[in-house]
Amino acid sequence: EIGPGSRAQPLHVDGAQWWPFWNMSPGDPEIMLNFLVAVEDTTVDNGATRVIPRSQRLSYRGDGEEQSAASWKGEDAVAVPLKAGDCLLIGSRVVHQGGANVATDSHRKVMTMTVVSSCFTPEEAFPLLIEREVARTLSDRAKKLLGYKEVTPFGSAGLWTGPAEDRAKVLGF
Question: 5 FRET partner, CA 20 to 30 A, in 21, 70, 143, 158?
C-alpha cells in the first residue's frame, strides 16, 4: 500500500536478493516471479507501479557492456496503471518501483504474491510462519514451495543442510 504523500520507491529488481542472480544473463531461467494484483485501481497519481521497458534484457554481471544499477534512471520508468483485479507480472530481472502517490485521497493498494524457485530460501520464510504439524499435511510439492522440503539440483549434495541430509528428514517428514 502506498498512501498519499509517499515518495516513489527506489528502482530495483526483485531477483537481486539471491546471489545467483548476479551471475545470470538475459535468457537464463527466472528465479522468481512477482504477481501484483490491484485491490483497488492504481493510477499514475496514486503510485502505480513503474517499470523500465525491456529491462529484463539487461545483464547485471558487470563484465562487459552490461548496464549497472547506477545506470537506471527514474525518468525511463513507465507507469502501469491497473484496474481493480488486474495483475501485473514482474520477473526477477525487471527494473521497477512503486510510484510516488501525489493524490490526497487515494491509496495505491496491491496484493503481492511471489513465487521463488524452491531451491532458494523462500522470501517470506514460511518455515517460521507455518506450524510443522500443518506442513506435515501438505503435498511434497507444497512443502518444497514453502521451504519445508529441499530441492536438490542435479549433481548437488543439497542446498539446505549438511551432506546429503534432506530438510524433510531433519524435520521428521
Answer: 70
